[in-house]
């Protein structure tokens, strides 16, 4: 399969956005992405929209909103994709398949979510639709409660790793200080994150604390993908060296919830397809919706054996100064997690590093980057390997 290249992008600041809804969030990034890629609206052959929604907005039919936000795109074929927290990557992969199938040469991808207008209680219930409600729909604390159960299971089998989770949180907040798009640009010490206080209470009965949880955010991001035939004519070209999706069983009762087997398989497939090893990567953007997720992803991607993920952060391997920086953008923990935008945002953050356009976030000598985005509890697992070619 011939993979497309990323030619341009745009990214809003995540957080509590002034924009009133999805249409306005999309309008804030799509024109800038086209300008950055050096293409016009009439050059776009297909539009792919990632919005989770499921009750965050009364407006459905989200694919049509791009044409409302940018009238020049109103007659371009557009589709809406949804795949839980991996919604943005679902839209991105659909666009890449569209190009690989020969249906078009240039595709626009945008992901967006407006979450802050919804009460915390209602948002928690909406997000539970990304789990198996038949068995998990009544868990106290919603999705946070599910990840608390996962953390408790991990601690039971491998010992208390609360401090290592606090180190992951602190690391990502330190990285996020350099990201102008981040929701929370605030340094949090490991000691602060590891101490239960009124400002940092246990959630859903623990063992996770508030600082172990990503933020409810608004935001949008957009990418322009181009066919390999056009990549050489673009100002920049970030090539998909590999991209793979691997699903796992939705119900946690049907699998080992602390293995992240689907994520492991997606990483193995992508590294094999790209003909590289994990150590060849210069950075990774991964899905730290909760700190226990990042720790489990260290094990799934092969940085550590099962039960040894805590050693990775203790040794500093995933800091900006480490051998393999993970989430130099601050990750979901600091950057924020507007559900439909996250997968697109992660790819934008990696592409910025590869293009040398990451500003204060820029790492030295980034030529090969990995991206991991997951839907639900490691159910829909997307792994991309990106390479700078121009």
Q: CA-to-CA gap between the ends?
A: 20 Å
**What percent of residues adopt helix (DSSP H or I)?**
25-40%
CATH homologous superfamily assignment of the domain at 5-118 and 217-231: Thiolase/Chalcone synthase
In spatial order, strands of the major sheet run: 3-2-4-5-1-6-9-8-7
Task: Please identify, by name, the CATH architecture of the domain at 5-118 and 217-231.
Answer: 3-Layer(aba) Sandwich
Spans where pLDDT lies below 50 across 5 or more residues: none
Structure description:
The chain is an alpha/beta fold. It has helices spanning 22-27, 30-37, 65-69, 87-100, 120-127, 133-136, 142-158, 162-176, 190-193, 228-231, 261-274, 291-301, 309-314, 331-335, 339-355, and strands at 5-11, 46-50, 78-81, 106-113, 219-226, 238-247, 283-285, 368-375, 380-388. It has a domain at 5-118 and 217-231: Peroxisomal Thiolase, Chain A, domain 1, CATH 3.40.47.10. The longest helix has 17 residues, at 142-158. It is globular, with a radius of gyration of 19 Å.
């Amino acid at each position: 399969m011939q993979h497309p290249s990323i030619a341009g992008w745009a990214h809003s600041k995540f957080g509590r956005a002034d924009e009133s809804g999805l249409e306005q969030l999309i309008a804030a990034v799509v024109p800038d992405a086209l300008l950055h890629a050096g293409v016009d609206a009439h050059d776009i052959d297909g539009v792919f929209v990632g919005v989770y929604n499921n009750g965050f907005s009364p407006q459905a039919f989200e694919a049509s909103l791009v044409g409302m936000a940018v009238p020049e795109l109103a007659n371009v074929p557009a589709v809406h994709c949804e795949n839980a927290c991996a919604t943005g990557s679902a839209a991105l992969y659909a666009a890449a398949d569209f190009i690989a199938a020969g249906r078009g040469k240039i595709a626009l991808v945008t992901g967006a979510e407006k979450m802050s207008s919804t009460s915390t209680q209602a948002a928690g219930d909406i997000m539970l639709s990304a789990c198996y409600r038949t068995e998990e729909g009544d868990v106290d604390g919603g999705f946070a409660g599910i990840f608390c159960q996962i953390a408790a299971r991990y601690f039971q089998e491998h010992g208390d790793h609360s401090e290592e989770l606090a180190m992951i949180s602190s690391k990502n907040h330190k990285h996020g200080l350099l990201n102008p798009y981040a929701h929370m640009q605030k340094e949090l010490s490991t000691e602060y994150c590891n101490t239960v206080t009124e400002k940092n209470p246990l959630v859903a009965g623990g063992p996770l604390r508030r600082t172990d949880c990503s933020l409810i955010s608004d935001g949008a991001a957009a990418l322009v993908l181009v066919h390999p035939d056009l990549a050489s004519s673009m100002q920049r070209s970030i090539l998909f060296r590999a991209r793979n999706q691997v699903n796992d069983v939705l119900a946690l009762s049907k699998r080992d919830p602390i293995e992240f087997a689907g994520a492991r398989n997606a990483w193995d497939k992508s590294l094999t397809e790209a003909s590289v090893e994990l150590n060849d990567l210069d950075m990774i953007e991964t899905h730290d919706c909760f700190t226990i997720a990042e720790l489990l992803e260290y094990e799934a991607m092969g940085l550590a054996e099962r039960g040894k993920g805590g050693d990775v952060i203790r040794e500093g391997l995933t800091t900006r100064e480490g051998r393999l920086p993970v989430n130099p953008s601050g990750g979901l923990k600091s950057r924020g997690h507007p559900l439909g935008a996250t997968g697109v945002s992660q790819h934008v953050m990696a592409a910025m590093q590869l293009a040398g356009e990451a500003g204060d976030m820029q790492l030295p000598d980034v030529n090969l980057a990995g991206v991991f985005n997951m839907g639900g509890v490691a159910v829909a697992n997307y792994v991309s390997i990106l390479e700078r070619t121009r």
